[in-house]
Design a protein that fits this description.
Length: about 260
Amino acid sequence: MDTKIKVENLTKKFGNREVLKNISFDVKKSEVFVIMGGSGSGKSTVIKHIIGLLKPTSGKIYIDNVDITSLKDTELIEFRKKIGYLFQEGALFDSLKVWENVGFYYLENTKVSEKDIYNLAKEKLALVGLKDVENLYPSQLSGGMRKRVALARAISYNPEIILYDEPSSGLDPVTSAMIDKLILKLRDELGVTSIVVTHDLESAFSIADRIAMIHKGVIYAIGTPEEIKNHPDPVVQQFISRSPEGPITEELMKELNNNFKK
């Protein structure tokens, strides 16, 4: 299987704080690659680098063998057309109707007629299981419906890659399972390459072709769901077993004590 995305020795510092520490991984074409970890582990920071919202302190990111960290801003804007991005909270425009949210790229950047954009929005909404919502506003939708509208927008220009930032965050179990099913549907029917950032273990193990476990900016393990479940590293095992005892807890207590002393 061809490599679609390659992250090579990625390091990111904000001031003196090192958020990502020399991480490397690759994502195959049409693969669902899950980055799993706790809050503040650095997983969302990774995908912000892949879409070019952040520049690395050091390291390279290749998409289709192109080093996107070396692209000029104008080149990066053009390159981003390959990538759809599902924001954690959906990031819909409250003042725009659903169809305008889905077709926002076309409304702002093309001369496509509003009628054609409306029809395209209906088509993309149908792909994520939504009908007869085109003329509603986001405030009139449930949380799960808003997330699916955001996903319809992310696939509106037929991207080759979709980055999902906590796609099941804030959703009930049934709606979360529906989002998981949509991620797999886009892979199977459209050949989309997906990177999914999540701390939801059930979701991660149900959709992933491979999983990277990240903790405090370091990748501790990469493998299939079965390989991750059986991985010997104590950090990995504590996270997937949801245990209150282990190295993660010890690190947290040490940080709290240091902050208290300050």
